[in-house]
User: Fold this.
Amino acid sequence: MSSSDLRKAGLKATLPRMRILQLLEENSQRHMSAEDVYRALLEAGEEVGIATIYRVLTQFESAGLITRHNFDGGHAVYEIDQGDHHDHMVCTRCGKVTEFFDETIEKRQHAIASQYGYDMTDHSLYIFGICPDCQKAQAERRR
Amino acid sequence: MSSSDLRKAGLKATLPRMRILQLLEENSQRHMSAEDVYRALLEAGEEVGIATIYRVLTQFESAGLITRHNFDGGHAVYEIDQGDHHDHMVCTRCGKVTEFFDETIEKRQHAIASQYGYDMTDHSLYIFGICPDCQKAQAERRR
DNA sequence: ATGTATGCAAAACATTTGCACCTGG
DNA sequence: CCAGGTGCAAATGTTTTGCATACAT
Assistant:
């Protein structure tokens, strides 16, 4: 149950917070912008202000419950943090996001940071490309 | 000379464009936001509108003359593309940017993309951390 | 000349903030 | 009850756009 997760993070278990956390947990899309969350809640008939969404998402991020990504400059997207670190591959056609993890890359990143004397706190790796589905669609259009 | 570079890219060699390109070529900082460019030109006594800066930077990016980065969500920064691909390490304290290149990581990225059937068009890797200088400063403050 | 580029100001977004009211513990 | 949370609307910061004027070729 999410209300205990919230209290564990030192946050009061309010209605908006529970709704937002629940949404991020259940959503199959997995990567949602503040606007996405807002619209999803509206459609579900929930009354939440957009300001609250931003505030809550920021708090969740600080609490380590979710992770923020800046795939493009336009807007941030958030995803539930389920303990497993992974990187992202983003389809530039349809926006689909695929997650992956590569031990070799992780190791090299740490090695490079320490080589330059950096105290590494975080890293982000995005591979941009065209996903198999969009390649197929493109091939058919060409026929 | 930059005017020929511009024409090669299919862009008229106008004064603002030459100034902006020159600035990006010469600037030691190497990673500038639109606002940075704007202020630098004002200080140099040049009359350029901020809208032109944005338009020109976007055109330069499309033309492949410069590369755009979204280190954080706030604002984009641009750097001259001198043919050598590299990734970035960003100090979260002072904002300093260190460039690096790692063959192993590059290879793994391609391997992963093709493993998932993606046609990779681009990728971005940022390592965030605290640079040696800021670590030192922090240690002194603690004394 | 003439199509393109620029400057200005207004618009468009994404996100943040001040403040009065409401709510969870 | 009361500290903290929320909603609203206004403010912010960045980037984009409409339009009349200026410029490169």
